[in-house]
Structures are given as structure tokens and as C-alpha cells.
Known about the structure:
alpha/beta; Rossmann fold; 3 domains; 19% strand; globular
Amino acid sequence: MSVPVFVEDVLDTRPLDATGLTIGGLLAANRLPESLFQPYLVRGATATPVPLTARLADLPPDADRLLVRAIRNTLFPTVLPAAADATDTRYSDVGVGFRAIRADAGGKAYEARVTVGLDQARVLVSDEVTAFTREHAVSEAGCVFGISGGGDSNALAYGLANAVPNERLLAFTLVFGAVFSPEAAIRAGVLCQELGIEHRVLNPADIADLLGIRTSLDALYADFSAMFTNEALHFFGTFLILRTARRLAAIRGFSDLAFGYNREDLLAEALFMVMNGNRPLQYPVRQLGAHRVIMPVWRVPKLLLDACHPRFSLENYRERDPYTTRQRSLAFFLAHTMDSAYPSFGLSLLTGMKESFAGAWGTVSHVDDLDVFVTEQASTENVERVRDLLGRHFTDEN
């Protein structure tokens, strides 16, 4: 009996099986894009087109065969390994699996596969962070970063601890039930203690005091939700994290604000901007007034970051809320599709956009009386709405 397989997300848990597999699904299982093929039912000398949505079990038994024809003159052996050339795929190792497509001496594609365990994942991420911090002089600038107890920020903390002197680092975790869970702060605290990183846990009263909220965090969140709905919860969280990071950095005299933005995060952000007709924002270093937002793991796929602390990562995902926007969901879906369709394609695209947009990135500007940074797309009407909202909760100095 095979092991049952389930897909789990923030909304539900669903079983996976091959019942009802379609022609398109069969192509996807063989890593072939369905839009590149047209299926035909062949009977003798007659070929009749059928849709990709046709279920294999429903195909007429009197057909001689199903022919799935490529509609481009793509040289498949140069980009896709033959099934017979694939390495052994039987279960053997515990860890996170990655694959790469390479070319042999004759120009034909072959697939290399590797399973990465916890220790190796940490070394790979640490090496990436070390190279970044040296290139951008992070130790000299001093660095504040938020740690959520999840895969991205946990791996970032591990990398920073190995690359930057501890006295030049300050980690913080926000606790606010609707947005940031207390369990996340516990995980973050355990990790920071192990790494010897100074770690501040800020509860709602601490956050209000630090940021100059004259009402309460609960009141601010209720007002924000009434204006933007629960779908904007993540944006509220980002607002709090960024403002807290800037305030702590100013107090400590540090210049850099590090975030665990990974490969798919930045791909999703860039896709979201471009598909809405806007220029992407700069990465992996983004200037925000007196501070730099730095992204030391920008080249790293999220799966590798999660592999550094797998148990914490799973716990973090199971605490996630079901609120977001449809376009945000779509952007992440497409970002993860890239490397799934072809290994490292997402990194190639991200690197290419970084070069293509050099000197032509989208801009952010500081609104002095609000102490917020807004993109070019912020309308006067929306800025005024935010001004009214923040004015009801913050002191004049904040």
C-alpha cells in the first residue's frame, strides 16, 4: 500500500492522487508545458484533435493511440533529459531535493539531482550571506533585522551570525496575536540564544511605546482592517516591521535593515509590479532615506532556506493566516512556477532584471509628516486616507 499524499495550505488539506488525470496533467507530470502541445486521437490515417482537459480514463477505447504533438520546432533533447536518462528517483535520503539541467559533450541535456540536509543547507546559505555582507560592507554599517521564527529569517539569522560580529547585529520579533504569534517569538528566541545574537521581543505595549502610538496597537489594527479589510493584513505587518526596524536602527546608530527576501519573494514582487505596468523596486540593496534595506539571501530559493531549520519552518507555516490578495497569491504562484518549469530559470530572470533595470528602477519617496515611504503608484487620495488613519493613532512626532 502506498503512502497517502496530502497537499496542505492555509485553507485546507487535500489528498493528491492520479484519479481523473488529464492529458495536460500527464504532460505536467513529465515536466512538459501543456501549451506547447496539441493532443490528437489517431484512428488509422485519421488524427482528430482533443482538448488537453480530456481525462485519460475517458478516451475512447477504439482509438489506435493518443498522439501529443509539439507545436514548435523545439529541440527537446537539448533542453529536456530523456526519461531513460533520469537518475534513480526512488526514495533514499532525508532532506530537500534540487535538480539541475546540464548539457553533455554532445549538447544533449541531462539531469543532475541532489538532496540537501540541514547541515549542508546551513553552510550554503551562510556562504551566500558572507559573500553578500563582504560585498556591501554590512559589518561596518551595523544591521537590524526582524526574525519571525520562520524559514527565511531563521536562515538569515544563521548566516548573519557567521558573517557579522555579534555586537553589530540586533534582532527583533514582534508579538501581536492577530499578525505575529507568540510561538514565533519563542522559536526566534531559542535560535538567537544559540547564535549569541542580541534579541528583543516587543509585545503590543512595547511596540506602541517605541513607535509613538498614542491609542493602542489593537485600535490601530482595527482601524486599518476597517479601511483595507483583512486581506491587507500582511501589508500591515510589513508596515510595523519596517517602522520598528528603522526606529531600532536609529537608536543603535546602525544603517542596514536586513530582510530574508528570497529568490521567489523578489520574483513575485517584480512580476507583480511589471504585470501592473510598473517598474520593479531595486534589489538586493534598496535605499530608504538614511537606511539601506539589504537582502543577503536574494539569490537563494525558499526551499533551501526552509531546509536550515525544517521543524521551525513547518510550525511557522501552520500558524499562517488565510488572508491575502488574489494578485499576491498569483504572483507567488508564478514565481515558484519558474524554477519548477526549468531549474534555475527564476534566478536567471532575476539576475537579468537586476542588470536590465540598473539605473531605471521604480522609485520610493518619503512623506515627511507620515514618516512612510511610498511608491510612484501611490495616489493622492490613498496618501490622504493613510494620513487620516495614522493621524488618529500616532503622536505628532511619530
